[in-house]
Amino acid sequence: MRFFVLLIALSCISNVSKAQNKTAQDSLKTKELNEVIVVQKKKAIEQKADRTIFDFSEQAHLNSGSVMEGLKKLPGLIISDVAGMMYQGKQLEVYMDGRPLNIYSNELNSYLESLPANAIEKVEVITQPGAEFPATSGGAIINIVTSKRAKNYLTATYSNGYSYTKYDDSRHKFNNSLLVSAKNSILGWQVQVGQSYNESYQRSNFYSPDEVISKNVSDRINRFYFIKTGLKFDFKKDRLLVNYDFNTSANTSYINAEGFGFTSSDKGMTDIDRHDVMLTYQKRFEDITKKLDFRFNYNVNTNDFVLLSRDTNSFGLENLSDQKFYQFKTDYSQEVNFLEESKWSVGALADRLDFTTKSFGTENLDYWRTTLAAYTEWQTTYKKFDFILGGRLESYKIEGNTDTGSLTPFDLVKFFPNATVQYNLMEQVSFNANYNKKISLPNTYALNPNNTNYQNPNVSFYGNPNLDPTIFDNYEIRLSAYEYFFIGYSVSDANNQVVNRIIQTNDGAASTSINVPRLTVHNFNFGLPIPYMLFTKGLKETLSFNFNPDEINFMYFYVGHQKHVLDDIDYKGFWVFNLMSQLQLPAKIKFTANYNTSTKGGNYQYYAIRYPLSQQFDLTFSKKFLNNNLSMSVYINDVFNTNKQKLGAIGTNLLYDSKYDSRRVGFSLNYKIPTKNRLAKVENNMLNNDKKEEGGLLNN
């Protein structure tokens, strides 16, 4: 009964907030006779039928530090050395501004650690990707959106951050970025430039009950520079978008290692360059419900890794990879006069990926794959029901050669259906059921036969160029209410799943990727906001109080349970918990506390969890100054220094543990450089609710 009372309270809170915003706008209209100023408050969390949207731009506890640090605080999101990136039991394909990043594993982690979080507008987690998205999205998509809306005047925003940590030594991290944009009736443009410098520490150990196989301590320095540019040309109803992104990084690691039979001192150097070009032409018609888009995307990513022994001054590894990706896609949609509201979409896609690797100048992998696809999807509303029915036909062809022979060719044509039914019990309360079939193609990190991070005489890391794709059947049911509350259950049934395993070798241990015949992931998740006012004022006074729900004192509680079922092991589930508390302090200071943890004793695929995953307690204090143009925050991450990993390699007697400098003190600021243009007060809602897929810069 109390549960339903709380839902009623949330409903009243939502309605009060709407009335409050309307009253505020009416008041502004009365005072401003010559101009109307519209202020729309962005929501911290927004629930959609197929996705959850987290606003980074206005949440200091998310946009302080790096993008990686912000992502780790999202409820239900797990990021670890072995788990990769998973949301509510679903492995994530990482997009940025609506297009796949095509970078993976430790290279992806380094990229997200280097990118400042105050350069991010929002993050979308698309848990039910429909036919409009490539079937290769696997279980789910995380789309990191950096784009902002260019306004009818020159705007500039400067962002800065600094943090400090001390373990065996003092280490520093800082970043700077500048965003400048403007537009007129014909042309809009946007440029964002930035850099980051990051000193970090990590230790990792491989051992068995009898001996220490490898004990490593790494001291790292990462230098990262980026530029993101966008042009938008308006031609009456049509428009052309041109985006170019470039980032480069130079990473250096000093590694001291020891273990059974060896000691070593090494220096690892990684240079990465990434170019990404996106051209989008949007054709519009007299009938505004018709939309036709053409998109071309090209990106190239090069990774040059060298491992130098400081003991002998000789090269232990010299590995290079070069990845090129081409994609063309077109999408058409229009509303149809059927039932109450209906929309029909159709589209096609063609892409190609070329991937080559070299070791000491010798090419040992030449891999290429092509994809052709066509889809159609139907969305309709009838009374309290919403329906989505779609299908996607995709063709894959994979070929390649190693330095010892040819890869086994892979040729597949397959149909991927999706269906969603949503019943709207009342306004902002809905029950959703979804099914979709997807595929995941082996990523280039898992394919790479070369070691691209580190190895010593007892431990090595390598890929497997003979991996096959994975087919997923995804099922989900979900009850959502008032943006913040949800309860759901999902099952992801994978055939030929690619997994990472630690195996025993004659010399010690190795980490590699293999296909397993079947993996099923069961996931239960629950999220609930609890206003503290309920405990101090009671339900009756809470319902009569006039407030904005994003500006009150509350706690957000999330709990999830995952079970990874494999045929050849004794599997056990584990629980994941997140608590986030927001308090409004005197002088309009906002205090946020965030705590993540999990239970131990379960398994993630072939890893036994011996210590809670990502156990961390974070504190953030934030305040706005100078007519809200300057936002400042001070934060302490991992206050109790508890974020570490301890895992057992199932099927062996090997154990693995790692620790990085997660306890960090820092500050960040975001300064919107003032303009004398009175229209600069207009703040448009950046959340584009009409598009299922966010595009690049200036695509809002």
Short description:
This protein has 700 residues and is mainly β. 9% of the residues lie in helices and 60% in strands. A hairpin with a 3-residue loop joins strand 1 (45-47) and strand 2 (51-55).
Word description of this protein:
The protein contains seven helices and 36 strands. A hairpin with a 2-residue loop joins strand 13 (238-259) and strand 14 (262-284). It is mainly β and 700 residues long. Mean pLDDT is 86; it is low at 1-39 and 678-700. The protein is globular, with a radius of gyration of 25 Å. The protein has a 22-stranded antiparallel beta barrel. Strands 1, 2, 3, 4, 5, 6, 7 and 8 form an eight-stranded mixed sheet that branches. The two termini are 43 Å apart. Helices cover 9% and strands 60% of the residues.
Question: Layout of SSEs?
Answer:
Blueprint lengths: L1 H30 L13 E3 L3 E5 L4 H4 L3 H5 L5 E4 L3 E4 L2 E7 L2 E2 L4 H10 L7 E5 L13 E6 L9 E12 L3 E14 L3 E21 L4 E24 L2 E22 L2 E23 L6 E19 L4 E23 L4 E19 L2 E21 L2 E18 L2 E2 L3 E17 L2 E12 L3 H4 L11 E3 L8 E12 L3 E20 L4 E23 L1 H4 L1 H7 L9 E13 L7 E12 L3 E10 L4 E2 L2 E3 L6 E10 L4 E8 L6 E6 L5 E6 L3 E9 L28
Parallel strand pairs: 5-8, 23-26
Antiparallel strand pairs: 1-2, 2-7, 3-4, 4-5, 5-6, 7-8, 9-10, 9-36, 10-11, 11-12, 11-35, 12-13, 13-14, 14-15, 15-16, 16-17, 17-18, 18-19, 19-20, 19-21, 21-22, 22-24, 24-25, 25-26, 26-27, 27-28, 28-29, 29-32, 30-31, 31-34, 32-33, 33-36, 34-35
